[in-house]
Amino acid sequence: MIACGTGAGAGLVEGLKAVEKVARGAIGGFVSFVAVGDGNTMVRKTVQRGGAHALFSESIPAEIAQAPLAGLISSGPDRPEPLSSFIAVEPGVGIVTGHRMPQSLAHDGVPLNESVLSRMFSGVNPQRAIDEVLAENEDCDAGFLACTMDGVLGVGNAPSVRLRRDLGASALNELNGVARVATLHNAIEPHRVIASLANEVALDRMLQTAPPVRWITLQAGTPLGPSTRADLVTDKAGIVQSVRHASCESASRVGVLGLGDRVGVVTNGELQGWLGYEPFITVRAGKIERIDGQKEMALPVVERLPENRVTCEILASHEASSG
Q1: With contact defined as beta carbons under 8 Å apart, do 75 and 27 qualify?
Q2: Which CATH number does the domain 2-210+308-321 belong to among 3.30.1460, 3.60.20, 3.30.70, 3.40.50?
Q3: Tens of pLDDT along 20-45?
Q4: Residue 35: enclosing H or E segment and its boundaries?
Q5: DSSP letters of 252-293?
Q6: Domain boundaries, the chain
C-alpha cells in the first residue's frame, strides 16, 4: 500500500487493520512501514508477527499519523531480515513499495525497488521508472507501487505476477488531488474486494484529519423554506434560523426530510462551510419537529466537501487481470 496526502500514515495503518479483520491468507504477519513527514523527516517501523495491530499496539504517534507520504508492505510472518529492505525510500524523492519480492536483486545486482527509486531520484516519472525496471527484469517476481513527494503515482506488476489468479489492485484519488492511495496484493482472499477495502478505509481516515471549522445548532421549530439547493441559514451565534431545501413542500406532507450530502451553511449571505453530518429530520406544519429524535442537536461544519473518488486508470489492466 502507498498513500499521499494529509494523514497518509494513519490512513495506511487503518487500511491494513481493516484487511486483517476480514481477510484470510498472507496477512497478519510481518509489516514493513515507512512514513515521510514535513521537512523530509523519516520514520521506519517493522514487525515480524502480528500485523498492523502489533506495529502500533496503542495510538499512532502524531508524526507518523500525520505524515503526508507513507508506504507499507505486509504478508505472513518471519520474512527475511532486514524487513526495511522491502521498501525503498528517499526523503525529498519518494517511496517505492509493492508486493511479492520487490527487494530481490535485478540483473545488474541492484535491488529492484532501489533501482526504481534511483530512476525517480534522477527525475524519471514513477510510472516510467517502474516500466523500465520491469522491462529489464521481465523474469522477476514482484509488483511495485511508487509515489513522489508531490503525489505522482506509478504501479506495475511483472508478467508472472499479472498471471496470478489471486491478484488484486486498486487506486483511489480525490478529484482535487488532496489524497491518493493505492494497493497491490496477492494470496489474500477474497481477492476481488481487498484492495478496494484497504483503499476506502485509508482514504476515509485521511479525510477525517481536519476537525470541523465550527459547530451549529439545529432546533425543533426551525422553519423550512424553498430553495434550489440545500442550505442551513444561521445567525452569528451558530443557531440555525431556517432550513432551505428543494423538497421542503413534499417533506412537510410526508413528515421526513433528507437534507442530502451537499448542504451549505450560510451566515449573513455568505457560505461558511458544509454540513459534516446529515441527521434524520422529521417535520410538521413546515417546521422541524425532531433531529435524530431530539429537539436540539449540535452539527459539525466542515471546510470542504470530499470530492468524488475515482479509480485511477493506471490500474485498469491489473484489475481486469485479477478476474
Answers
A1: yes
A2: 3.60.20
A3: 999 999 999 999 999 999 889 999 99
A4: strand 31-36
A5: HHHSEE---S--EEEETTEEEEEES----EEEETTEEEEETT
A6: 2-210+308-321, 214-302
